[in-house]
Write a structure and sequence with these properties.
Layout: H1 2-7, E1 30-31, H2 40-45, E2 50-51, H3 54-62, E3 83-86, H4 91-103, E4 107-108, E5 118-120, H5 127-135, E6 140-142, H6 144-153, E7 214-217, H7 225-237, E8 241-242, E9 251-253, H8 260-267, E10 271-273, H9 275-284, E11 311-315, H10 319-332, E12 335-337, E13 346-349, H11 355-363, E14 366-368, H12 370-379, H13 410-417, H14 452-455, E15 467-468, E16 474-475, H15 482-508, H16 545-548, E17 560-564, E18 578-580, E19 589-592, H17 599-605, E20 610-613, H18 615-623, H19 637-643, H20 647-657, E21 666-670, H21 677-686, E22 690-694, H22 706-709, E23 720-725, H23 732-744, E24 748-753, H24 754-763
Parallel strand pairs: 1-2, 3-4, 3-5, 5-6, 7-8, 7-9, 9-10, 11-12, 11-13, 13-14, 17-18, 17-19, 19-20, 21-22, 21-23, 23-24
Antiparallel strand pairs: 15-16
GO biological process, one term: DNA double-strand break attachment to nuclear envelope
Protein name: BRCT domain-containing protein
Domain BRCT: 1-73, 101-164, 205-295, 307-390, 571-634, 704-774
Length: 774
């Protein structure tokens, strides 16, 4: 590789770990088949692209520097090893899939070449699939549903159930999907291996991982002198030394994310890990980042805010994946229960076809996949269970296969646990740059201030690093200060936003990207501004970002995310910087012609959006620009009086409530209720309550509210139990048995009309039940 680079006028340096680290001031690119090497974060901070070896091959083949984003070894670009060729799909769907794959680090090829790994087709009868079969190419022919599910989850899942000619997802199979892959949690199942009596076992000889390294064992580990002596011997035998100086150490081993030594080591850029991480290094004799696996990093003694008191059960995970999730739940401060009961607050499941899932639906227990747990822990904030990523369960896929792929976020850890003493926290929020474009995707390492002497063992002056901008010559930033680095990083990530936004646009329209496109005559068809068809695109072996621009319009990052209720003229808004979303939790604005009692409108109010009139949309389309939404705040005094609310007051209360208006309250709903159970479930959950379908099953009891009681100061929150019912459809027997069940649990039954929950949610104020009781 080095000889090839030198032959083409490049300068090549070969990293020699562990004797010396990379000198980032002299490097423009790093070629590596893994992101897990000691200087990866230093490269990210210096905006030096890390690329897989295939980048060099493809650059030479095309005789130009290609965009390094599609060649990143970072697993957060989970499509990086995928190159798709799209066969018989409509142009709109093809553009959306190509954009989504490109945004997540993959490649798109307009022609069938040997580099193509997946052919996206609806059948084996397509010309592309037939040619691949005839030429016996290794490319797998899969349904577009595979790409759709990968992008929804933010993970690359097994393509076998989607593979033609006989895809499992189109069959009616009663058996639950079985896990097949080995998850990357081996050696990271428990943050403290001494609790299970485990002792470190080394290979015949440690040669690399501790060579010339200083290791400090913190006092909070609580290990015996005997075990400390064993670790000391192993580190010394591997060429390292144990030290008591946090300023001199290279590796700091501790149990908790607290204490002055922990903060000092973290701020200085030392490798900070726990005992499980140290054991893993000893067992493998290979360095790995302690942030790569969640339970290799010290835990927080007080747990994750919002999690202590939760009762979480697991279903359909087995082996290492189950042990890992059980211990991760414990690390958050929640309790993991072996069995599912009505007391449980959450059920984490690998697929939704099991008896536990059926029982959880009846009892109103939140059903989510493990991504909710992992990303809450990584971002150190409880993620919304209304996010569709956490409630998506692809058919014939066991999500245990993608367990353990989430990594800790350095920026979040810095902000929450070891901020600079001179940093104003109000001016330094944790960033998720890619999240500005799509909250459902992973964020690449964010640029942050790191002193040059923290990156290398020898002090040196900061130096500007050259970055390759797609389609341009190498450019040199004028400074490496924090603000400039963040601006450059945001600029680069903005390119990804275009691909993601294009994919999102297609998924929002009726049918999404997997049910066929629309005819040109369709009045609701979204124009993508394509200047030429795929067949007319330059015959390049593999596309890069500049190729992608030939199949999609330039789209700026959205300036607002808008929920629209009862209004159909929404086309073409995306080009004005308005992203239409169906997810109320992501909305910044809510548009309606007047106050309406639809699920979208009522649910969205819980997230405190600015409520504007749909005249705002008309004005934007008429003027061809984004007008000031403050000039179009919805005014509807007639309906405000009718529903006993004030929109401005409701928004203020919603900001204060923070989706916890119904925290600790249990609300049952009749099965045949007007509007449907799912409608009221969405409204209740958006306001922090639990909504349960009332079917009068024998042995049913009111779930315990103790898990939620710590989060609410209302002493009556767990005494009143509500049943939503229609006035003229109520069966007296069902109501009587509901009262018996509630009173048997020593609580107070409140049987009310649906107007109570609607007006409570719209006013963002708990209404007294008496005027609404049946």
């Amino acid at each position: 590789m080095a000889e090839v680079l030198r032959l083409h006028d490049g300068e090549a340096l070969i990293a020699r770990y562990p004797e010396e680290n990379l000198d980032v001031k002299e490097i423009t690119h790093v070629v590596s088949d893994t992101y897990d090497f000691p200087d990866y974060n230093a490269c990210a901070d210096a905006l030096i692209p890390v690329v897989r070896p295939t980048w060099v091959q493809h650059c030479l083949a095309k005789k130009k520097l290609l965009n390094p984003r599609q060649y990143s070894p970072d697993p957060r670009y989970f499509m990086s090893e995928v190159c798709v060729c799209i066969a018989d799909l409509p142009p709109g769907d093809a553009d959306a899939i190509a954009g989504g794959v490109l945004a997540m680090g993959g490649l798109w090829s307009p022609k069938l070449t040997s580099q193509v790994t997946h052919i996206i087709s609806l059948s084996m009868e397509s010309e592309t699939a037939a040619v691949a079969e005839k030429r016996k190419l290794n490319a797998k022919v899969v349904l577009p549903h595979w790409v759709d599910d990968c992008l929804k989850l933010g993970r690359k899942i097994d393509e076998h159930p989607y593979q033609l000619p006989d895809p499992e997802i189109l069959k009616s199979i009663n058996k639950p999907p079985m896990g097949k892959r080995k998850t990357p949690v081996e050696g990271a199942l428990h943050p403290d291996p001494t609790q299970s009596g485990q002792e470190p076992t080394a290979p015949r000889k440690l040669e690399k991982v501790f060579k010339k390294k200083l290791v400090m064992l913190a006092t909070d580990l609580g290990i015996s002198p005997y075990l400390r002596g064993i670790l000391n011997e192993l580190i010394t035998a591997g060429g390292g030394r144990v030290t008591d100086s946090v300023s001199k150490t290279d590796m700091y081993i501790c149990k908790y994310r607290e204490g002055q030594d922990y903060k000092t080591a973290s701020r200085a850029g030392k490798d900070v890990g726990n005992l499980a991480w140290l054991y893993f290094l000893i067992q493998t004799d290979q360095w790995t980042s302690p942030m790569r696996r969640m339970l290799h990093y010290p835990v927080a003694k007080e747990g994750l805010p919002g999690f202590p008191g939760l009762l979480i059960s697991l279903s359909n995970y087995s082996g290492d994946a189950r042990s890992y999730l059980e211990n991760l739940i414990t690390a958050t401060g929640a309790k993991c229960t072996k069995t599912l009961k009505q007391d449980n607050t959450h059920l984490i499941t690998a697929h939704d076809t099991s008896e536990k899932c059926a029982a959880a639906r009846e009892w109103g227990v939140h059903i989510i996949n493990h991504l909710w747990l992992e990303e809450s822990y990584a971002r150190w904030k409880m993620q919304s269970i209304t996010d569709k990523r956490y409630t998506h369960f692809p058919q014939r896929t066991n999500l245990g296969d993608v367990c353990g792929h989430t990594q800790l976020d350095r920026g979040v850890l810095e902000q929450k646990f070891f901020p600079d003493e001179d940093t104003d926290m109000t001016d330094a929020p944790a960033t998720n740059p890619m999240g500005q474009a799509n909250q459902n995707t992973f964020a690449p390492p964010s640029a942050r201030r790191v002193k040059s002497e923290q990156i290398s063992k020898t002090p040196r002056t900061p130096a500007a690093s050259r970055v390759v901008a797609p389609g341009k010559e190498n450019v040199t930033p004028s400074t490496t200060n924090s603000r400039k680095s963040k601006e450059v990083a945001a600029s680069r990530l903005h390119m990804a936003a275009e691909d993601i936004a294009l994919y999102e646009k297609e998924t929002k329209r009726k049918g999404g990207v997997i049910y066929g496109g629309r005819r040109k005559s369709d009045p609701e068809r979204v124009e993508l501004g394509r200047k030429r068809s795929m067949d007319e695109i330059d015959d390049a072996e593999t596309s890069n970002d500049s190729d992608a621009k030939k199949v999609k319009r330039s789209i700026d990052a959205p300036q607002m995310r808008l929920v629209i209720s009862k209004y159909e003229k929404w086309k073409q808004l995306r080009s004005l910087g308005i992203l239409i979303t169906t997810d109320p939790s992501r909305a910044t604005h809510l548009a309606a012609p007047h106050i309406v009692r639809t699920m979208k409108f009522v649910t969205a109010l819980a997230y405190a959006p600015l409520v504007i009139s749909t005249e705002f949309i008309d004005a934007c389309l008429q003027e061809g620009r984004l007008v000031d939404p403050e000039d179009y705040v919805l005014k509807d005094t007639q309906n405000e009086k009718k529903f006993h609310i004030s929109l401005s007051d409701s928004r203020k209360r919603a900001e204060k409530n923070a989706n916890q208006l119904l925290q600790g309250r249990c609300i049952y709903c009749m099965e045949q209720i007007t509007g449907g159970f799912e409608t009221f479930k969405a409204i209740v959950e958006a306001n922090g309550g639990r909504c349960i379908l009332w079917r009068n099953r024998k042995g049913t009891t009111v779930p315990s509210g103790r898990a939620d009681s710590e989060a609410t100061t209302d002493t009556d929150a767990n005494n009143d139990v509500y049943l939503l019912s229609d006035e003229n459809k109520s069966a007296p027997g069902l109501l009587a048995r509901f009262r018996e069940m509630v009173e048997g649990s020593r609580k107070v039954a409140k049987i009310v009309k649906t107007d109570w929950i609607l007006e409570t949610a719209m006013s963002q104020q708990l209404r007294p039940t008496k005027p609404y009781e049946l």
